[in-house]
Amino acid sequence: MQQRVDPAARSGGQPLWLIILAAGTIVAIAMGLRQVLGLYLKPMTTELNIGREPFSLAMAIANLVWGFAGVPLGAIADRYGAGRVLAGGAVATMAGIWLMYSAQTGTDLIISGLMLGIGIAGTGITALVGAVGRAAPPEKRPQALASLGMAAGIGGFIAFPYVHLLIGALGWKSSLLAIVGTLALIIPLASVLAGKPAGMTGIQRQQTLSEAFGEAMRHPSFWLLIAGFFVCGFHVAFYAVHLPAFVADKGLNGSVAVAALTAVGVANIIGTYLAGQSTKFAPKRLTLSFIYFMRSFAFLALLFLPINAVTIIAISALLGFFWLSTVPLTSAMVGTFFGAQWMSMLFGFVFLSHQLGSFTGLWLAGVLYDQTKSYDMMWVISIGLSLFAALINLPIRERPVERPEAIASAS
Amino acid sequence: MDQIEQLDSQDERTPRLVRRLGFAVVALLMAGALYLIAVRGEAILVDLAALGGRIWCF
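The joint structure predicted for all components is written out below.
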């Protein structure tokens, strides 16, 4: 039975393309600007004379809060509509940036990190997957979610050079005000996604939050998906952050690292698009398994191929194709299991695993590098984790959970 | 029923003008970003290196 989405049931009855366009623009702004904050470490800590620890701590807090706040904010978006969560998230992010602008002490920066974490959780991909997932018919959901992933990739890609240019042209303080102005664009865009989600047509029954949570916790395939996404976070955070140091260790010029990260960014956008399209002819779990399996080749190549500019850029491009292409497939799988009613909340839970994976990857890479003065051990662990993730995605049951009471009431 | 599906399909399709405008804006922004990365890429990396081991990526 093919489900159809009643256009009137979408956020404010808006057409699907407008919802995707608004959600894509929001996620591009939010994900792009959250990534550039590292550019402010040097100018801020130099001018405020506070040392680098408070700033780093503020960024770490922002990322932790982002991961943990994704679940409750996702639940609010699912229950009351994404519009108010997005608008609130935008205001919190703007307040966080404003606090950075006016900071005098390390404590100001830490409060700023807290606000930024809440803000990013409210405006990022977790808050939006539910709105887009509910708006799109199930057969088009992966492509719609892939559009969000691509927008996040584009936002991340373009934000760095433009904000760097902005800091150079305006100075770091004024550039923060420009960022606040850019973030304000999210508020009118959020109105497109406003409105309490209406029930979908078809066999779906309304679930309470605790029912949805309990059902997900008891579903083995959900846990397999969570474990796989942990590996995704582990890989991308470790590679993106440590690649420049790895390139420098190999005696290569800094421009090679820039070209390699650019290759990752461009290939990521293409890979995310292809991942969305792949669901037309392949089960999502098999494509996810393939993505993780292919990552192992990239890490094998880093371990065994002669490292020069060409190999680094080629390997990075290969890895880029399999970078965040996991996002539309993973989020669409959540929709396949449980429907779209609590999609943001449940994907928020999966996303938390991604963030914990990111933390583990970064932490372990630092520890192992300090002990061995080499990344070899991390490549080996990454290969092992790739194979682990490829395997655990295979037994996932890619079908809606059985709800005996729903069947009983339908009959 | 067919009519409803046809209306849905029209409703979901991005208008041609919006699609072309969207592609043009994204292409321009990406081209600009690639140019800036080409001329300032190493400076960006140097500025980011200070936070290198401490940020998380998505």
